[in-house]
Specification:
Layout: E1 3-9, H1 13-24, H2 26-33, E2 36-43, E3 60-61, H3 65-68, E4 73-78, H4 86-95, E5 99-102, H5 105-122, E6 126-127, H6 138-145, E7 151-157, H7 160-172, H8 176-185, H9 194-197, H10 200-214, H11 233-241, E8 244-255, E9 258-269, E10 281-288, E11 292-299, H12 303-319, H13 321-329, E12 348-358, H14 363-373, E13 378-385, E14 392-399, E15 402-403, H15 404-415, E16 425-429
Parallel strand pairs: 1-2, 1-4, 2-3, 4-5, 5-6, 9-16
Antiparallel strand pairs: 7-8, 7-10, 8-9, 10-11, 12-14, 12-15, 12-16, 13-14
This protein binds NADP nicotinamide-adenine-dinucleotide phosphate.
NADP nicotinamide-adenine-dinucleotide phosphate binds at residues 9-15, 43-46, 79-81, 85, 103-105, 130, 134, 301-302, 306.
Length: 436
């Protein structure tokens, strides 16, 4: 029986979970797959910290060449995270003839074309299920089970930290800062949660989803992005009054003129499946032209769900499934027809505007005038006394769908109005062209 040797680089949170599965379930995996998958080496900068797992003698190393130069290792798992040296390491693994498994969305969103090209040139594969939505098998579903469909849209909650914070604000009435603290105390948010709350993490995952599902070649930096750091407790309350919930949605929607990609806190009807996704869960709704809407939900991060996806990739690579899918999906292949991206100013969607204004006659007429001049029509309006000042009022305006460009310019003009006391808060309503 031929053994398939595996090397693991990065023995942190996810690396520990991966080692637990590959060492603890070795026999079970053999019985199920008929393959002897052997974790032979684990490389980390720190090989002294006890990770709470029994390891075979000599498996740990801080010398990467014990993996790259080991002819018995044919699959290497990259779990160090970040851009460098992860990029250089992955290129080295491919150069050494290894197939790669990674959970590193930042690496793929920044260097996907280069890495996939290198893999193709060497006849090797890169598997990356864990890079989007942790334990949810979303990439393999798109790449295999939904192949018969033209995907029309994706609406997804891909950042568990943001979803946890919004859920806390919704259920406990916590303000944003308190909810972030709770997330940090429970280990859902890092000490510096900026990449989660400013939408960077979500937009990087959307870049990977959009490439896989639509062939879209998008730089994550160009995709319009708003994080949940713009959402306050009052927005959550107003959304509730309107029968809606706020979720950080990553959306991709195919239109006649191109693909609309966007990440934004979005008001969605409380009856929508995505509105019911709470705490640190992730969820993805995909609409295919034949299958219609399909919905996936699960834990998008953490040691166990993420290690589950990583190890499934290892097994798929070992049994030869990855080679088939990798060849077929042609991630970032130069000759893959790319769906053009809609310029962000042309993305159409409804908006929620929260303005704090001086309570005086003529205010509403002036606001309506500005919106009207930009062809933005008002769907509904709410007014409440602003908590901070008794002579001010809080105005909530929901607009009918309008182009981002027009909305942006109108909000700039609203912010210059003399009676406007604070910067207008703008969130998305619904997802472009879908029924969420
Ligand atoms: N955590 C999650 O829930 C989650 C979910 C989905 C995807 N992911 C992805 O999975 C990957 C790993 O995440 P993680 O949470 O396990 O990170 P982590 O806990 O920080 O683990 C990374 C490990 O790699 C080590 N390392 C860093 N640079 C190295 C180098 N040059 N050589 C050898 N070892 C090195 C680190 O050592 P030091 O600590 O000494 O630097 C650390 O032990 C990331 O790409 C992340 O985005 C994570």
């Amino acid at each position: 029986m031929q053994k398939i040797g595996v090397g693991l680089v990065g023995f942190g949170t996810i690396g520990t979970g991966v080692a637990r599965i590959l060492l603890g379930k070795r026999e079970e995996i053999f019985r199920r797959t008929g393959q002897r998958i052997e974790l032979l080496k684990i490389c980390d900068k720190d090989i002294t910290t006890d990770r709470g797992i029994d390891l075979p003698e000599g498996i740990l190393t801080d010398n990467l060449s014990e993996i790259t130069d080991n002819p018995e290792i044919s699959i290497v798992i990259e779990l160090i995270g970040g851009l460098e040296p992860a990029r250089t390491f992955v290129l080295k693994f491919l150069e050494a003839g290894k197939n790669v498994v990674t959970a590193n969305k930042a690496l793929l969103a920044n260097h996907g074309p280069e890495l996939f090209d290198a893999a193709r040139r060497r006849g090797r594969t890169i598997a990356f299920e864990a890079s989007v939505c942790g334990g949810i098998p979303i990439l393999s579903s798109i790449a295999t089970s939904l192949q018969a469909n033209r995907i029309e849209s994706i609406n997804a909650i891909v950042n568990g930290t943001s979803n946890f914070i919004l859920s806390r604000m919704e259920s406990d009435g916590a303000d944003y800062a308190d909810a972030v603290c709770q997330a940090q105390n429970l280990g859902y948010a890092e000490a510096n949660p900026s990449m989660d709350v400013d939408g960077t993490d979500a937009v990087q995952k959307l870049t990977i989803l959009a490439q896989l599902a639509f062939g879209a070649v998008a730089s994550w930096k160009e995709i319009p992005r708003t994080g949940i750091d713009s959402v306050s407790a009052v927005d959550i309350e107003f959304a509730k009054k309107l029968g809606k919930r706020i979720r950080l949605l990553a959306t991709a929607s195919r239109g006649e003129n191109g693909l609309a990609l966007k990440v934004s806190p979005t008001l969605i009807p409380e009856s929508a499946p995505l509105a019911k996704v709470r705490d640190a869960f992730n969820a993805v709704e995909i609409i295919g032209d034949f299958v219609g809407p399909v919905f996936y939900q699960g834990l998008g991060a953490g040691e166990r769900p993420t290690a589950s996806a990583v190890c499934s990739d290892v097994i798929d690579t070992a049994v030869g499934r990855t080679a088939l899918t990798f060849g077929a999906v042609r991630m970032w292949a130069a000759d893959r027809p790319a769906l053009p991206l809609l310029p962000s100013s042309e993305i159409v969607g409804g908006a929620y505007l929260r303005m704090t204004v001086r309570d005086q006659p003529g205010v509403v007429a002036e606001i309506a005038g500005i919106l009207g001049r930009h062809n933005i029509s008002i769907a509904s309006m709410l007014q409440a006394e602003a908590a901070e000042q008794s002579d001010s009022a809080c105005l909530i305006i929901l607009t009918h769908p309008a182009p981002e460009g027009a909305l942006g310019t109108a909000v700039e003009e609203l912010d210059c109005l003399e009676f406007n006391l604070a910067k207008t808060v703008r969130l998305a309503v619904g997802a472009p062209d879908t029924a969420v």
